[in-house]
Write a structure and sequence with these properties.
The structure holds two protein chains of two kinds. By secondary structure, chain A is an all-alpha fold. Chain A is built from six helices and no strands. In chain B, helix 10 runs parallel beside helix 13. Classes of the chains: A mainly alpha, B mainly alpha. Chains A and B meet through helix 1, helix 2, helix 3, helix 4 and helix 6 of A and helix 2, helix 3, helix 4, helix 5 and helix 6 of B.
């Protein structure tokens, strides 16, 4: 288990180094994800121990956003002064982005029977 | 004899208290989420953030002293993002088959996210600082903060707007897609990842593995697309 945790950390570290070295417009962890993906493709499968560690991390993914979310405390003043443009822009833009992306993706990739109920 | 005050001072000097509070608040949010049958409106991140901010506001705790403990949870965002390679690998055949559709919907979604947010906020009178900080709101936090910094906005404000966007997408996304009749898991995942990064991906993973795989991929690709497109657009329209 420690071995697979080390592997995940090492992928992130390699990703961070690669991004800094090549000045890529990419977050280090996303580069790390691509490195791990390449490794899995070369190996041709996911070792069970890695699946266990990864599924624990991903099963609790949303917990990890809580500390950054509490940062809303820092900007109470600005958010109070400009609450109307910010609120309307966030809600309308998020809904519009979801609708546009989903409709184009469905039109081009089509339904293949893997459907929500 | 040790007074309550001394115990309090001792506790706030160690990361343990705020770490425990973070986990407990999320656990509380998750119990409600589960009780409400995973209704997206009962988003556990939102519930946890509201509880914690209320407690800190009442107790006069600063964000810095909270983050000194909570950073250990925050740190795991990186390794968890790396682990998104697992659902992606499990559905690599689906991803390959839809490569063209992924590319086109990504660019369209990315431009919609940037353009609509900036135009709406500008029309309603937001200041320049707010507009810059708002533009990369659909991208995962570390990248969004980097983009804002380059364009001269407020990175810490961007972090907050990114989280709020993620929560909004996770809460409202399923309803929007039901309303417009998109039921395909690939399209649903793609939309969640482009519009609301990791928090949308967390929701997608809870619901369906294919949606989770496409959402994680979309989140990564949109980070790249926005980092490339936004500085160009900004120079074109605001420069």
């Amino acid at each position: 288990m420690i071995g697979y945790i080390t592997l995940i950390f090492a992928c992130q570290l390699a990703g961070e180094l690669l991004v800094a070295w090549l000045a890529l417009p990419l977050p280090g962890p996303v580069a790390g994800m691509l490195i791990l993906l390449a490794g899995l493709i070369v190996r041709g499968g996911i070792p069970p121990g890695l699946a266990d560690v990864g599924d624990v991390l991903l099963g609790n993914f949303s917990l990890l956003f809580v500390p950054a979310g509490v940062g809303i405390m820092l900007h109470a003043g600005l958010l109070g002064a400009e609450w109307l443009p910010i609120t309307v822009a966030l809600i309308v833009s998020t809904l519009l982005t979801i609708a546009v992306t989903a409709l184009i993706m469905r039109a081009l990739a089509g339904d293949e029977g893997s459907n929500a109920p | 004899m040790t007074g309550v005050r001394d115990i309090w001072v001792y506790l706030t000097a160690s990361p343990l208290l705020h770490l425990t509070m973070t986990l407990a608040a999320y656990q509380f949010g998750h119990v409600i989420y589960r009780r409400m049958n995973f209704n997206p409106l009962c988003n556990p991140v939102l519930i946890a953030v509201v509880c914690l901010v209320t407690v800190f506001w009442v107790s006069g705790t600063s964000y810095d002293s909270y983050f000194a403990g909570a950073q250990f949870v925050h740190f795991l965002l990186g390794p968890a993002t790396v682990a998104l390679a697992l659902p992606l690998y499990r559905h690599i055949a689906d991803v390959r088959r839809s490569a063209m559709a992924i590319g086109v919907s990504l660019i369209a979604g990315s431009l919609t996210a940037i353009g609509s947010a900036v135009l709406i906020a500008w029309a309603l009178g937001a200041t320049r600082n707010t507009l810059v900080s708002l533009a990369p709101k659909s991208v995962t936090a570390p990248v969004a903060m980097g983009i804002t910094e380059k364009l001269g906005g407020l990175p810490s404000l961007t972090a907050v707007l990114v989280i709020v966007t993620g929560i909004l997408g996770a809460m409202l996304g399923p309803m929007v897609m039901n309303a417009i009749g998109v039921r395909d898991w690939k399209a649903r995942g793609m939309a969640m990842g482009v519009a609301s990064h990791g928090i949308g991906t967390a929701r997608a993973l809870q619901v369906n593995q294919i949606a989770g795989a496409f959402s994680g991929l979309a989140m990564g690709l949109n980070a790249v697309a926005t980092a490339l497109l936004l500085p160009l657009l900004w120079r074109l329209f605001a420069g």
